[in-house]
Amino acid sequence: MKIIVIGAGAWGTAVAVSAARNPGGHQVVLWARDPAQAEAMAAARENARYLPGIPLPRELHLRGGAPDDGLLAAVPQADLIIIATPVAGLRPTLELLQGTDVPIAWLCKGFEAVRDTGAARPFGLMPHEVQRQVAPALRAGALSGPSFAQEVARGQPTALVAASRDADVRRAMVEALHGPTVRVYGNDDLVGVEVGGAVKNVLAIATGLADGLNLGLNARAALITRGLAEIARLGVALGARPETFTGLSGLGDLVLTATGDLSRNRKVGLLLAEGRTLDEAVQSLGHVAEGVYSARTVWQRAQHLGVEMPVTECVVALLDGALKPVEAVAALMGRDPKGELL
Ligand SMILES: NC(=O)c1ccc[n+]([C@@H]2O[C@H](COP(=O)([O-])OP(=O)(O)OC[C@H]3O[C@@H](n4cnc5c(N)ncnc54)[C@H](O)[C@@H]3O)[C@@H](O)[C@H]2O)c1
Ligand SMILES: O=P(O)(O)OC[C@H](O)CO
């Protein structure tokens, strides 16, 4: 296959490396928006800024610059376009790609922050809603699931989920990435996969905070379990299938992100527990932590649908500075008793 990966952060680079190493013999181009970054990567055969220590295989080609600087001309020859920008870069990238019939997969995990919607709207959108709005004719889907970039790039075993309503798009994602170290499962529940991938980031901030405050392993397990209930409630209200949330993009990604110290979202929670401000926490990461930008939208959409999400509500209050960490714990523990399955 001919594959173009747009966005040379940690995850775009890891996915491009993985696809280039696939015995399928794919031709892979990794596109960085900064031409200097593409040149540096081509010279050093390493993405020193975003994924240091991983040699870039010879089969991986590096390009950079404005999209009209060759990228758009290359699109019609591709078999799959992978958009590896954060959610904030999805809308402009889809606008550029409208009109193509090449299958498209986005990797971002989040809901648009309201400021990214580009117009006055009651709340931010999920990735597939952004696509429906700006480029409805595209054949597209999401590649998601529990996957730290460093582990995928090192060839450590990983399972992903390729979600699209279009079977050809799912097939293209599987063909591009399924291989000796990556298993890719198909799922036509795009809504469920996107909700799982977005909301687990918000909940990982909560578990990072709980662990940073030394609340204990019981607290962590409680947050993960009740957090999964929040994900499933919101997902079902948005039209997802409940069983998606016991899968890779639900339970799988929540457990990984909430417990794995490679997670940037979990790290935000740990840093807040140390008393750092949100700005300091975000600055010190050097990478995007989508939960910070998605939390308010997730909460707004839940409110709009009448879905109860108390952990998410506390994360929003913490990020806004309206609650201190210990007050958030007291607020959650002080809630009235209720049935587990309600
Ligand atoms: N890193 C992981 O392990 C991992 C795994 C799965 C999914 N993801 C998701 O993939 C997406 C990208 O994450 P990452 O880890 O590669 O982030 P990163 O912080 O490592 O890199 C972000 C990249 O996107 C570019 N970028 C930033 N804002 C942009 C914009 N507005 N338009 C275009 N490009 C922009 C940056 O230049 C950089 O190349 C996120 O949504 C993240 O949740 C990450
Ligand atoms: O580092 P995080 O918190 O953005 O999580 C990375 C991946 O989404 C884990 O699947």
Automatic annotation (TrEMBL):
Localization, UniProt: Cytoplasm
Binding-site list for NADPH: W11, R33, Y50, K109, A149, R264, V288, E290
Record: residues binding NAD(+): G7, A8, G9, A10, W11, G12, A149, R264
Catalytic activity: sn-glycerol 3-phosphate + NAD(+) = dihydroxyacetone phosphate + NADH + H(+); sn-glycerol 3-phosphate + NADP(+) = dihydroxyacetone phosphate + NADPH + H(+)
Top class in the EC scheme: oxidoreductase
One annotated GO biological process: glycerol-3-phosphate catabolic process
InterPro entries per UniProt: 6-PGluconate_DH-like_C_sf, 6PGD_dom2, G3P_DH_NAD-dep, G3P_DH_NAD-dep_C, G3P_DH_NAD-dep_N, NAD(P)-bd_dom_sf
GO molecular-function term, one example from the UniProt record: NAD binding
EC number: 1.1.1.94
Residues of the Glycerol-3-phosphate dehydrogenase NAD-dependent C-terminal domain: 189-329
Pathway: Membrane lipid metabolism; glycerophospholipid metabolism
Keyword annotations of the record: Cytoplasm, Lipid biosynthesis, Lipid metabolism, NAD, NADP, Nucleotide-binding, Oxidoreductase, Phospholipid biosynthesis, Phospholipid metabolism
CC annotations in GO: cytosol
Gene3D superfamilies: N-(1-d-carboxylethyl)-l-norvaline Dehydrogenase, domain 2, NAD(P)-binding Rossmann-like Domain
Active site: K200
Ranges for domain Glycerol-3-phosphate dehydrogenase NAD-dependent N-terminal: 2-168
Residues at which substrate binds: K109, R264, N265
Pfam families in the cross-refs: NAD_Gly3P_dh_C, NAD_Gly3P_dh_N
UniProt binding sites for sn-glycerol 3-phosphate: K109, G145, S147, K200, D253, S263, R264, N265
Listed HAMAP family: NAD_Glyc3P_dehydrog
Stored PANTHER family: GLYCEROL-3-PHOSPHATE DEHYDROGENASE, GLYCEROL-3-PHOSPHATE DEHYDROGENASE [NAD(+)] 2, CHLOROPLASTIC
Main function: Catalyzes the reduction of the glycolytic intermediate dihydroxyacetone phosphate (DHAP) to sn-glycerol 3-phosphate (G3P), the key precursor for phospholipid synthesis.
Similarity comment: family membership: Belongs to the NAD-dependent glycerol-3-phosphate dehydrogenase family.
Name by which UniProt lists this protein: Glycerol-3-phosphate dehydrogenase [NAD(P)+]
Gene: gpsA
